[in-house]
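Course assignment 3, question 2. Fill in each field.
Student: A.L.
Task: Predict the tertiary structure for the chain below.
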Amino acid sequence: MKQTICAPKVPTANLAVNKSRIKLYNKQGEMPTYYLQSGQEFQIELFNPTTDVILAKIQLNNKHISQGGLVLNPGQRVFLERYLDVAKKFKFDTYEVSNTQEVKEAIQNNGDFKIDFYKEEITYPSYIPIIMGGSWSNPIHTYRSGTYTLPTTNTFTTLGLTDTSFNAAGSSSTNIGGSSSAYYSDANTTLTSSACMDSLSIPNEITFSHRSEPIEKLKSLREPRMRSAKTIETGRVEQGANSNQEIERVSKNFSPWAFHTIEYKLLPISQKVNTADDINVKVYCTNCGTKLGKGHKFCSSCGTKA
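Answer field:
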């Protein structure tokens, strides 16, 4: 008898622009990385392939964007373009800083992207009726009582959205947001940044004990020495333009422990190291000049070997 063992399905998260996924660079031993342009707005594509209702809690720059998260029903796919607490799109912003160890420690959380997924918890009533005797017309009921503390109810909001990009059944449209949800609160966070620069102080007069030094050397020692200011570009996810994506509240309870976590790093495009696969080289036929497709060994027009 043939036995097939399938790995358990887990939710996925990807970055997209206009509902088209951005290329993810996943080198062995390194954090999977997305490279974005300065000022680029993006979406978070979330998909729930499990049979459970799940909650996705999103962190950007190592901080939660809300006290709650986005609720996904089984088989649901959502392109989230905005923050949950404010109708602003996700935007990647860059700026330059000094390339020092102290600054690197200060910006280490810039561009951190993390999503934790939680399964829904089903609660049951605290009293269970048990029929001990009697007849159907006049039954006798007794109850098993006990002390039961209901968990705190979390409030979430629902994302309403209609999409036609993922329509496997072939119909004209597929509603992907009718029952997805996200927590809503009034908390606001203001992010500020500041920069400082070290200066090198040179005395106006320099005294030498040996006057036998060459005049040119003495002159060079008296002139101020300037350090080259090497900088690096870093980026954070900030609030972009206004979003028309709507959300509404729902009440559900979820496990306090995440069953799956996804982490990425978002970096400026200037930090990307291109390889041969990243360079789009156009190849033309040496005989007739027709543009050749990738991997073509012969010209489709005249048959000349590439």
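Instructor remarks: The radius of gyration is 30 Å. The longest strand covers residues 231-242.
Grade: pending
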